[in-house]
């Protein structure tokens, strides 16, 4: 599709291509730094970072691998995994914990080593809502650390999981206050904007809207983005259909059982659609959480 035929002016960060293009490339490093600093509200400031290899292998060749959307290290050594997750996964939290073990293990040193670790942060930007938290409509920003259950104090502060539930963020442009809120607004609404909102006057957004302009794309970039948009829309359609079927069956056999069946059917449908769009098995595995061996059998 030619650039001038695109209905949207800006790319969608929720697509695989859009997210990695805006936040996972050295030329747009300023955007990732700006987003992460806004996330910490000034309590922790990142001045620079380096992108690391997003494909992580296990200790042995036969071990399962992990593929991160964005994996980077700050100038002071902290590791960041930043992921856009569009589809609910039954064991999504398990997957987050598992992924965090890769940057932990790679810090091991040969010979004498005192086990000192640099901090590891996993940031999940979620295009869905946790089931157990769905009734807390305004609570969308989760920050999780290891805690002593009796004292309610942080036991270990070098391992942090941050989850942002985009569907719960409903503020309009006129209601935006903090820089963090402005970033969340952009992540959720960028592709629907026809022009830069007046509320987004910070310098970092100059770069964001420049980078996100579809009119600046090369033909190759446009093809890659178009494929990513198709995959994203297939996912959304499959999720909506499966959830509806799951809810309907839940009236008879219990809502939870119906939803779980819906999610399994949802994954299979997503795999089929993504395969038909020519996506690679490792990309499909990242979206669905299914092992590559299972994807090959569908």
Describe the structure.
- This protein is an alpha/beta fold.
- It folds into 2 domains: 208 residues; 82 residues.
- It is 42% helix and 15% strand.
- A hairpin with a 4-residue loop joins strand 4 and strand 5.
Q: Which of globular, elongated, flat, extended, rod-shaped describes the shape?
A: globular
Give, in spatial order, the strands making up the sheet with the most strands.
1-4-5-6-8-7
Number of domains: 2
End-to-end separation in angstroms reads 30 Å
User: How much is the radius of gyration in Å?
Assistant: 20 Å
Short structural summary:
The protein has 298 residues and is of the alpha/beta class. The protein contains nine helices and eight strands.
List keywords for this structure.
alpha/beta, 2 domains, about 300 residues, about 40% helix, six-stranded mixed sheet, two-stranded antiparallel ribbon, about 15% strand, single chain
SSE blueprint:
Elements: H1 16-23, H2 29-39, E1 49-51, E2 55-56, E3 66-67, E4 70-74, E5 79-85, H3 92-105, E6 120-126, E7 141-147, E8 154-165, H4 179-189, H5 203-211, H6 219-253, H7 255-276, H8 281-288, H9 292-297
Parallel strand pairs: 5-6, 6-8
Antiparallel strand pairs: 1-4, 2-3, 4-5, 7-8
Helix pairs in contact: 6-7
């Amino acid at each position: 599709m030619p650039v001038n035929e695109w209905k949207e002016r800006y790319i969608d960060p929720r697509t695989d291509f859009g997210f990695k293009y805006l936040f996972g490339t050295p030329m747009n490093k300023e955007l990732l730094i700006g987003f992460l600093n806004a996330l910490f509200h000034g309590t922790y400031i990142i001045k620079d970072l380096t992108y690391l290899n997003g494909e992580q292998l296990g200790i042995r060749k036969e071990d399962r691998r992990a593929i991160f959307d964005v994996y980077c290290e700050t100038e002071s050594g902290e590791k960041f995994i930043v992921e856009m997750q569009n589809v609910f996964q039954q064991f999504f939290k398990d997957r987050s914990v598992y992924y965090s073990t890769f940057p932990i293990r790679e810090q091991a040193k040969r010979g004498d080593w005192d086990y000192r670790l640099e901090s590891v942060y996993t940031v999940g930007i979620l295009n869905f809502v946790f089931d157990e938290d769905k009734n807390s409509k305004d609570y969308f920003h989760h920050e999780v650390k290891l805690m002593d259950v009796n004292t309610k104090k942080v036991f270990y502060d070098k391992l942090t999981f941050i989850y942002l539930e985009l569907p719960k963020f409903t503020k309009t442009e006129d209601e935006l206050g903090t820089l963090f809120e402005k970033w969340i607004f952009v992540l959720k609404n960028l592709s629907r904007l026809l022009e830069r909102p007046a509320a987004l006057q910070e310098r970092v957004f100059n770069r964001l809207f420049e980078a996100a302009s579809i009119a600046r794309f090369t033909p190759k970039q446009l093809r890659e983005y178009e494929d990513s948009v198709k995959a994203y829309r297939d996912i959304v359609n499959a999720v909506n259909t499966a959830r509806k079927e799951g809810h309907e069956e839940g009236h008879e056999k219990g809502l939870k059982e119906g939803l779980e069946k819906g999610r399994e059917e949802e994954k299979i449908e997503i795999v089929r659609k993504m395969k038909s769009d020519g996506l690679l098995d490792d990309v499909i595995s990242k979206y669905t959480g299914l092992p590559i061996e299972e994807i090959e059998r569908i």
